């Protein structure tokens, strides 16, 4: 079984679930999960966790993400992108009357904390049912706003009615809803025309590989070169090695004391560390209790 994270380039027409299903066939293993859904028409970075790395999905899904998007002003759709049914369309004069300065200022006003109402066409569950299932039946229900953060928006090109945006945001942000809200604020409506996710954590679109390439690398035995090991994904945590005598404890996920470490560590109370055997095998994440001088298991990766 392959363990680690692979940077997949999600192509248009595939759901994130489709990518996972295809990888299960390509790699002949079931234990696979992705970090952060991309809409079928969107493309770009989709980090996929393999084997033991699936335990990272909840940790890495929290990471900020970066996108290149095209906002199309003057058009409202039920999906908030150009794939949906048109709800309303502004006349050309209304759009052309907008000044570039006003468009720029409105877009920039979204930098910071932002309470966003998720679209009906989304995988969010309310009352045990996914919103897109309700939307396909023509139902529209009230959705609670979700807090997100727009870290930065850069306008890279403006040729009205289209505006190209470079957006860095927190997890759970819908870029098509951002486009919709900007259009609403400008009084002409708006939706998302294109979306490319360019970065998630350390993974960039330039380094991503397609499903076809993954098959090729599998066949020529070079796929390992494109897989990031589990412990490297947790490089922000301090490293702790246990002594030979304590290895049985950590293999079973048991508590060990500071005296069991290979070298004396100066960890702070509550600090989470990566634990390794004396031979360098990665075991998992442990939390240090300074009062008791013990390390307790948080997440095991054996």
TrEMBL record:
SUPFAM superfamilies: Pseudouridine synthase (SSF55120)
Enzyme Commission code: 5.4.99.25
Residues in tRNA pseudouridylate synthase B C-terminal domain copies: 176-234
Keywords linked to the UniProt accession: Isomerase, tRNA processing
Pseudouridine synthase II N-terminal domain: residues covered: 24-175
InterPro entries, per the entry: PsdUridine_synth_cat_dom_sf (IPR020103), PsdUridine_synth_N (IPR002501), tRNA_psdUridine_synth_TruB (IPR014780), TruB_C (IPR032819)
Task of the protein: Responsible for synthesis of pseudouridine from uracil-55 in the psi GC loop of transfer RNAs.
Protein family per UniProt: Belongs to the pseudouridine synthase TruB family. Type 1 subfamily.
Catalytic residues (positions): 39
Protein's UniProt name: tRNA pseudouridine synthase B
Catalytic activity, reaction form: uridine(55) in tRNA = pseudouridine(55) in tRNA
Isomerase as UniProt keyword: yes
Family annotation (CDD domains): PseudoU_synth_EcTruB
């Amino acid at each position: 079984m392959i363990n680690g994270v692979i940077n997949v380039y999600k192509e248009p027409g595939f759901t994130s679930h489709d990518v996972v299903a295809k990888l299960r066939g390509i790699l002949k293993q079931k234990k696979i999960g992705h970090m952060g859904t991309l809409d079928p028409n969107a493309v770009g970075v989709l980090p996929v966790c393999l084997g033991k790395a699936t335990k990272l999905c909840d940790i890495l899904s929290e990471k900020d993400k970066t996108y290149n998007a095209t906002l199309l002003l003057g058009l409202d759709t039920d999906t908030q992108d150009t794939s949906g049914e048109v709800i309303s369309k502004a006349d050309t004069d209304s759009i052309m009357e907008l000044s570039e300065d006003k468009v720029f200022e409105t877009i920039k006003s979204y930098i910071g904390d932002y309470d966003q109402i998720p679209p009906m066409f989304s995988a969010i569950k309310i009352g045990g049912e996914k919103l897109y299932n309700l939307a396909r039946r023509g139902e529209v229900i009230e959705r609670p706003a979700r807090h997100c953060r727009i870290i930065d928006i850069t306008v890279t090109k403006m040729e009205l009615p289209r505006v190209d945006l470079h957006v860095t945001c927190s997890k759970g942000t819908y870029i098509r809803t951002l486009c919709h809200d900007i259009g609403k604020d400008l009084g002409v409506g708006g939706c998302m025309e294109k979306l490319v996710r360019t970065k998630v954590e350390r993974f960039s679109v330039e380094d991503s590989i397609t499903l076809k390439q993954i098959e090729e690398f599998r066949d020529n035995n070079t796929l390992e070169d494109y897989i990031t090991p589990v412990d490297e994904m947790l490089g922000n945590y301090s490293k702790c090695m246990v002594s030979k005598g304590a290895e049985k404890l950590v293999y079973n996920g048991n508590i060990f004391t500071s005296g069991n470490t290979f070298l004396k560590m100066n960890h702070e109370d509550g600090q989470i560390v990566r634990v390794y055997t004396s031979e360098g095998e990665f075991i998992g994440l442990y939390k240090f209790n300074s009062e008791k001088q013990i390390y307790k298991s948080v997440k095991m990766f054996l």
